[in-house]
Amino acid sequence: MSLTGGAARIGALALLGLAVAQPAQADTIYVSNEKSNTVSVVDGGKLQVIATIKVGRRPRGITFNEDMTQIFVCVGDDNRIDVIDVATQKVVDRLPSGPDPELFVLDPQGHRLYVANEDDNMVSVVDIASKKIIGEIQVGVEPEGMGVSPDGKILVNTSETTNMAHFIDTESHKIIDNVLVDARPRVAQFTGDGRFVWVSSEVGGTVSVIDVSSRKLVHKISFAVQGVPRESIQPVGIQLTSDGQRAFVALGPANRVAEIDAKTYEVKRYHLVGQRVWNLALSPDEKRLYTTNGVSNDMSVMDLERGRVVKSISVGGAPWGVIVKP
Amino acid sequence: MGRAAALLTIAAALLLGVPAWGADPMVVRIGYLTRAEEPRIPQTFLEPVSDDEGVQGARLAIADNNTTGRFLNQRFDLVEVTVPEDGRVEDAVRDLAGQGVRLLVADLKEDALLAAAAAPEAGDMLLFNTRAPDDDLRNERCRANLLHVTPSRRMQADALAQYLASRKWMNWLLVVGRTPQDAAYADAIRAAAKRYRAKIVEEKRWTFEDANRRVDTGHVTVQSEILTFTQGTEHDVLVVADEADGFGEYLLYQTWLPRPVVGTHGLVPTAWSRVHEQWGATQIHSRFERQAGRWMRPRDYTAWMAVRAVGEAATRTKSADPAALAAFVRGPDFTLPAFKGQGLTFRDWDGQLRQPVLLAGPRVLVSVSPQPGYLHQYSELDTLGDDRPESRCRNR
Lengths: 326, 396
Prior knowledge:
Chain A has one helix at 3-15, and strands at 28-33, 38-43, 48-54, 59-64, 70-75, 80-85, 90-96, 101-106, 112-117, 122-127, 132-138, 143-148, 154-159, 164-169, 174-180, 185-190, 196-201, 206-211, 217-222, 238-240, 246-250, 256-261, 267-272, 277-282, 288-293, 298-303, 308-314, 319-325. Chain A is mainly beta. Chain B is of the alpha/beta class. Chain B is built from 10 helices and 14 strands. Chain A binds chain B through residues 100, 118-119, 121, 138, 140-142, 159-164, 166, 175, 178, 180, 183-184, 203-205, 229, 231-232, 234, 253, and chain B through 16-19, 64, 67-68, 71-72, 280, 283, 286-287, 308, 312, 315-316, 335-337, 341-343, 379-381.
């Protein structure tokens, strides 16, 4: 899609006198599609898919490099990480990952990737520059969620069958503590100030908020949606606003995103999105929330100022991860 | 064998640099009891018979428990016992009790299971039934020291019936084999038909000799036999009850009317199948295949669940006391994640594990029951099997 084409379209809309609700946002959204082995590129202004990038098999975890010129994608069935060049929208390189990578996190300095090897009870530490695995940390059964503290010193990994959040010292690669959470923990997300980590438990149906310094559970958030069986409430993706006021949790087959007061932990409301909502991403200005809906094969766009879903966009098969570039 | 496996596990742990337990770990001993059986000739060599069915699942769960246990200084040991074909399971229970086993995985058929549960030493044990699907074990013959991990026949039949009803395939031709187990399976199918308002338009008993695939031109006999055998009242599906796997497979494609075959063959309700890959099941398949060198079967899966249930209780209670673990497993806070998309719990009225039931085709997963729309005031999983008001279990 050429720039002039987009400009012409906007011009045409203006000529027609159509009120465009949002200012044209320059965000670009990237969605990994687990089943179609692609990454969809969505224009945040037009809210349309503008490109589809072919990657390795079973892409799930997706993240930018430090300056957002590259995208790393875990391609689990190929046991590696694909590197996408953002400018050319092509896979240009690959990194080792250890077996069956599912999720990973970039250290805040941008030098390392910490990768959960789901099949091997292990976290691999990948040095990006040398493209080498420089460390392996034994964790619980079926490692999944990965979170890193803003100062890069503490890594948190969750293990789905062990049901723990493992706190790992990134200097020594040693586990310093293990915190038991509810069944099948998925995502670990640090708060902006680095004091707490939020861990979602998919089968347990809760989110545990853990104090990072004491490793004590400070709160457990439960959910209840009228008319939705309790077993269908399966928290996965977590996003926190940078001011520390609001949190959003994807509830899987409940097809809802919970909006939470991040100070009081009170669930304020539930937003209906697509089927089996999996992961979430806030736009850089935090005015929008993007969700991947694994069963309905689309992405929901939530306008956070108006507090509602404004659009669903078809992406690839079984959309999984989502990231946004300003 | 058990010791050899344990040594191997320890050796593997050292090689991988897994942190070892601290000094004096808490030890949880779990027994695994099975009985030798006459080797079975498989109906198809695509599904070879293995003599370690069941125990491989228990071993995998021990390894999983130990991975978690290292973080809590808990160690899990499996004490494996195989009683000879003509041996007494009661004696094995006594031996196991003498070795400190109070939590016992029972890979036994109904009568042997009841004998084991009735042994005097089993009085303060908790037994996990990982094999016997019999409905009377959950009703008239229920016992307080027995939990049923394997789904009952009635749960399987209900799972199938819900799917057929959702398709509006309401007229069934029921074909029943000669064994008592086939008759029990047929009973469950009849109960499910009643519950979901399907109609069994006709019942036929399979009285032919079981086909022999090795006989030259054996297919010619099958082809003519089944064609005439399946003539009769118009129906939507043929439901077959052949747990011994003697003839069911031969019904497919050989029927008088072009109708799907479901039940013990064709579309099969089951706890586990290699075709199931959802909810992280791929991960346990690959772990299992690496360990056992074959696919994971339902008996492996139920044994895995039983040993994991004990592991889960030990993790949550931070205890190794069998009484505390048994109480936790039976209590309201217990839930077991087992690759079925939701936590599983035990029913307090009959000790049955609530669980979704897979509907497996020969090469892909067809569906998972409960089907959408079958509602229940407590748990939709209780639309499968004996619900509280129907239960005839009085001994718990």
